[in-house]
Each structure stands twice: as C-alpha cells, then as structure tokens.
Design goal:
Layout lengths: L23 E7 L3 H4 L6 H19 L19 E7 L2 E8 L1 H8 L4 E6 L2 E4 L7 E2 L9 H6 L11 H4 L13 E6 L15 E5 L12 H10 L10 E6 L1 E2 L7 E3 H18 L5 E5 L1 E4 L2 H12 L3 E5 L10 E2 L7 E6 L17 E4 L3 E4 L5 E4 L2 H19 L4 H9 L4 E3 L35 E3 L4
Parallel strand pairs: 7-9, 7-12, 8-9, 12-14, 14-16, 16-17
Antiparallel strand pairs: 1-3, 1-4, 2-3, 5-11, 5-13, 6-19, 10-11, 13-15, 18-19, 20-21
Protein name: Subtilisin-like protein
GO molecular function, one term: serine-type endopeptidase activity
Pfam families: Inhibitor_I9 (PF05922), Peptidase_S8 (PF00082)
C-alpha cells in the first residue's frame, strides 16, 4: 500500500492533508494505461506514476487551475481531504473528501474508472448483546462438532455437538491468519502461548486493543485454544473497525482497503503468502471499488474469507461478499437450517455454523454470538487446516477445497425461513446469472466439513 508519506511528490504537502476539507468522503478508482501494460500486471512504479499524474490534475481543479509545476506543490482548499492511497496489482485508487461539484469534476477526468461513496462498514453479527458462557471447552462448541461429523444429531448433549474431531496433522504452527476487524485482545487466555502481532490500524487515535469484542470473538473461532478450528496458527490483528464494548463495530471502506493491502504486502515481504488467510466478518452496501481491491489482493496470493451478511437478502447486493474471488460464507443453525438472518443467493459459496457460537470476548471472558460473522471464521480456520494437511498454497486451491472438494457435505441444508437456497447442490448454482450488485440464482446446498 502506498500512503501519502510514501509518495515523494507529496511529502511537502502531507502535513496539510488532515482536516480542513468539507464535503462527503469518496473512493476513487483509476484505470491503468492498457496500451502501456498490455497483458502484464502493473508494477508499483507504473502505478505510482499514474496516481501522481491524476492527483496533480485533481489539485489543478481544486485550486482553480493554479497548481504549481513543482513536484512538491502544496495542495490547499477543497483538496485538503485527501486520505489513503491504494496500489496493489492492477488496482489503483485513493480516498478523499470532495465537495459535490469537485466529485463530479473528478468523475469526468480521463482515466477515472469509478467514484463511489466511502461508506460505513459494520460487523456481521446479529444484535448487540453478548450472552456470557462458561469457558469450559465443551460449552457452546456445537459448531466445532458439526463441522467434524457427517451426520447431524440436533441435540446439544450428543457427541456430534460437544466433540470436535480433527486430524493431528492439521495443527501445524507455521500458518497465519490476518483478522481484519476490530482488533484482538492480545492478553486473552484463549490465545495463551502465542504472541498476537498488531498490524495496520486505520485510525491512529484508536486504542491498540479490541474495544467492542467482535474481532476477538471471530479470532477465537478460527484459531482459539479452546474454541478454534486451527488452534496453533499465528494471529495478526488489523484494526479497521472500532466501537463501544459489546456493540456493533464500525469503520469505513477506505480503512478496510488499506488494511487489506497492508496484509497482502506484509505476507509477501515475510514470505508467508502461501501459508496465510485473511478473514473479514464485515460488510456494507455493494461497492465495485471494494470488490476490485479485494480481488486484486487474492490475485496477489492471499486467500480471503468473508461473511455473507445478515440482512436476509441476496449476498450479491453487498460487499465484499459479492467479490468474485473471495470465499463467501452463510450461516446455519443447530438443525442445519439456514439462519433466519443469513444472506443467501449465488454469491454465497459455503455455509457454516453461525448461531449461538461461543468464543473469546471482552475482559478475558467468553460469550455466545450469532451471525455470518461467526460462520466465516470456521471456514478461515479450515483453510489453514487444509494448508497443514494437504499443503495447499494458492487461493484457488483453498477455495476449491472448502467449496467443492474435501470440505463439503452436500444437500443437507433445509431452507427454514430463508430464501435463495438451492434444494440440491448444482455444479453452477447461479445458472450463469450471478452478478455482483444484482444477484440472482441460489446458494449452493453445502455445509463445511473437515472429513475427520
């Protein structure tokens, strides 16, 4: 990710880019010159040059055409709201506050692909109340039991729901999960014996901790000591959301995109892309800029697992659930019914347990939460499980395994009160009609399974 301080032509202007702009916040996506790139992926130098040239054009408009020709020009007036800049693969863009008139002028500039709202992003949990649970390893673990048994016996006292079966070779320690959420409580006993690395943080004034509990909870489901699918993985906290204790966490698309690109670059420089997964149990309204950013992160080699959303509607109407290259997860309850709030439709790839799921929470405690937020970390944990068991190294291998190959129970889900579920498990559940932002088709009838 290229931030303001990394763009040499903006060094002198960076101090003035903090707060004086008035207007709405937008995301801007810039096209790269297809003639100069051909079929090749953009390199950072090419991308930086495209970004520099565009920002100079915007500065001229913002200053009435009076921008300096000096590469260290000052940006003043309405363009003081320039925020993060994004470069990964063939994705180039930035966030900024524009007045309505400036936004329209930016849309009209050559090379601008899209200008869309930098909207609010929220977690995908249902309700805001966390119910305390006993931290006993056998308490509230029906989800772990369900993903490790082919047959379902919907009784919490039966072995299918209070016993987690896993292969010993699945618990290797050289895998990493990036949790892009509200942070992780690093001293929680659920993660004893492992150092949680603190990564990117969208807002510098936020506490370097999980103040609302959501990130800690999903981290525990994916990789907790008692409640985790893959309890030996290393964890990296990326804080793009924040909020009061026990409440719904919120953030912005720009913070999410910055966190995504930071994770991909961090995994690349550390040489761990092939052994890593990124988890996002969050979302907002459909945004193609966000989808393009996520897909470019996947193209860079980092597998991304996301929650489908909890609006009881088509997941294709939201982002990042509608991104084409992610693994999108809906949730089911104890009876293998699609949960009443779970989004469905053809953008969903797999279902996993998501009601009354126990995991780590605030104040070193534990809680049961519900939503597709809780289902997605089961799948993220399974991606790491497979990397240990089978040596998978690419996002394509990871997605095939958890959606069509090793980790699927087919045709067992009942629809309940939901809509948009296939009665069987067709090879192409969308019948060719699946379109992000539009939807259509049905969700495949597949429950996550570790085949132990």
């Amino acid at each position: 990710m290229l931030r303001i301080s990394q763009l040499s032509f903006l060094l002198a202007a960076a101090a003035s880019l903090l707060s004086t702009a008035s207007g709405e916040s937008f995301l801007v996506q810039i096209k790269l010159n297809s003639n100069s790139l051909g079929r090749r992926q953009a390199n950072p130098i090419t991308a930086q040059g495209v970004l520099e040239s565009h920002l100079k054009d915007v500065a001229k408009i913002a200053q009435g055409g009076e921008a300096s020709s000096n590469s260290n020009f000052r940006i003043t007036g309405q363009f003081d709201g320039l925020g993060d800049t994004f470069v990964i693969g063939n994705f180039v863009g930035y966030s900024a506050e524009f007045s309505p008139s400036l936004a329209e002028s930016v849309k009209a500039l050559p090379g601008v692909s899209r200008v869309l709202p930098n909207s609010q992003v929220t977690t995908h949990q249902t309700g805001c109340i966390a119910r305390p649970v006993d931290p006993d390893p056998l308490s509230g673990e029906w989800g772990l039991g369900r993903i490790s048994h082919f047959q379902n016996t919907p009784d919490p006292y039966m072995a299918t729901h209070n016993t987690y079966r896993f292969h010993p070779n699945s618990q290797c320690s050289n895998t990493t999960i990036y949790v892009l959420d509200s942070g992780i409580s690093r001293n929680h006993p659920e993660f004893t014996g492992r150092t949680i690395r603190w990564g990117y943080q969208a807002v510098s004034t936020w506490a370097q901790d999980d103040t609302c509990g959501h990130g800690t909870h999903i981290a525990g489901i994916a990789a907790g000591r008692n409640y985790g699918v893959q309890s030996s993985s290393q964890l990296v906290a990326i804080k793009a959301l924040d909020g009061p204790p026990g409440d719904r966490c919120t953030g912005s698309w720009s913070g999410v995109i910055s966190g995504l690109i930071w994770a991909a670059e961090d995994a690349r420089t550390r040489g761990i892309l092939a052994r890593s997964v990124l988890l996002m149990s969050l979302g907002g309204s459909w945004n193609q800029i966000v989808n393009d950013a996520v897909d470019n992160v996947v193209d860079a080699g980092l597998t991304v697992v996301v929650s489908a959303g909890n609006s009881a509607e088509d997941a294709c109407l939201g982002s990042p659930a509608s991104a084409k290259k992610v693994i999108t997860v809906g949730n089911v309850n104890l009876n293998d019914e699609v949960s009443w709030s779970s989004n469905t439709g053809c953008c969903v790839d797999i279902f996993a347990p998501g009601e009354e799921i126990a995991s780590a929470h605030l104040n070193n405690g534990y809680a049961r939460l519900s939503g597709t937020s809780m289902a997605a970390p089961f799948v993220a944990g399974m991606v790491l499980y497979n990397k240990c068991m089978h040596g998978y190294t690419t996002p394509v291998q990871d997605k095939v395994a958890v959606t069509t190959k090793e980790n699927v129970i087919r045709g067992k889900i009942t629809q309940g009160d939901s809509i948009g579920l296939c009665t069987e498990d067709p090879v192409n559940p969308s019948n060719g009609e699946c379109e992000p932002g539009v939807g259509g088709g049905c969700a495949p009838n597949r429950i996550l399974y570790n085949r132990c």
